[in-house]
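Page 47, continued from p. 46.
Same chain as before, 504 aa.
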Amino acid sequence: MSARLYSAAVLGIEAVSVEVEVDVLSQGLHNFTLVGLPDQANKESRERVSAALKNSGFRPPHQQGRITVNLAPADLPKNSPIYDVPIALGILLATEQLLFMPEKKLFIGELALDGKIRKVSGVLAIALFALQAGYEELYIPEENAHEVSMLTGIKIFSVTTMGGMVRHLRGEALLCALVPETPVYETKVYSYDMEYIRGQEQAKRALEVAAAGGHNILFVGPPGSGKTLLAKTLPSILPALRFEERLEVMKIFSVAGKIHRDFSQFERPFRAPHHSASAVSLIGGGSYPKPGEISLAHRGVLFLDEFAEFPRGVLEGLRQPLEEGVVSVSRAKGSIEFPARFMLVAAMNPCPCGFAGDPERACACSPFQVERYRQKVSGPLLDRIDLHIEVPRQKIEKLQDEQKGELSSIIQERVEKARKRQEERFALESVHMNAEMSSEQVRRFCPLTEEGKEILRMAVERLHLSARGYMRILKVARTIADLRESECIQVEHLGEALQYRFND
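Result:
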């Protein structure tokens, strides 16, 4: 007897169909063969499935003769234990221990030896695929149910044990499909608020501009000047995620196995890897590529503190994602693209000791040491950062000032208004924010007056700006104009944008 069930595999953050074919030949000595390009985790399915079926009260495979399981298509690598459940069900169907119609049903899940069904990664991506492919029922581990709580249009059953799922499929003890939940957005109370930052008015203004247009920003200043604090306040002024952005973010975290029950669907990601992070952990990779920190920061913030302490090779890997919003990870077993549309916030000292240019503390570094330190971050990478901000050490009078600054919630309102203007402007375009504009879109949406053209021409000549730097100044100027609710880029908007390129 033979049986065919349906499952899925995750490639990048998208899912594709996998057919689980089971053939049982009762004659001959027992043999359990698994084919279809399985990896070690799949090969071990034989032992897990055998024990789970025995401990769930079914005839185990070793009593069934020759069993052959094929995971089709055979040229697609299978690198996840999610096929345990469909393999076990296929064996029950092929041996007539269970009768049901598997069409329009998709099964995933890892089996424990006692028959319990354990959580797996990539459930949201698989659920979206099942919805689009026209499946009517999806069976997932109960521990993954929170990942798909907002989906409609498909019956999703969360199962805890092999026996419980079999009783449901027999019609003996029916399970209730998950009821889609309407997410309720609650205003988050952030640990870091703009009102508690003393001084640093230019830096706070630059953060507002960066948040409004999705621009990258670099803070340079001595230790203790507030660079890290400024970066950590950025989430408090960013708008909540749109529905399609939430799905993108949740798919990435689902594939990475990082969605937990208290995972916020509305918060923009804030990732802050240590400067000792490897290229694989930051960019993504592995034998079967998985998303790295830059993809986990998609639609959110990637904060790289001690920017110059990261290995240069690791930092250079940021070039493509910063420019294109995606990262391509190529390995011997395949090439995968992960989304990586994030805001980069970097912070670094001006020199190894941190006090170059400090009027109150002498720098202990030689000119050679200072130059070598700054060269750790390449010019092409700096060219991809829109706003370069000096963060000087604050005087004691500022630190002891009891007057609070502007609330993050007030700044967030201005940011949301600017983002709304951009959404309306780009309603028919493929981008959503000013920072994402192509060169052709910059020419269409960032016209300058004759006076503005002359000012920018002189700036290009004096600062020796590259074509990329030229375009990024226009994007920042466009964002400043949006914050000022201006349809046109005025001279003052262009002047403010130019002051943020002091490092060029």
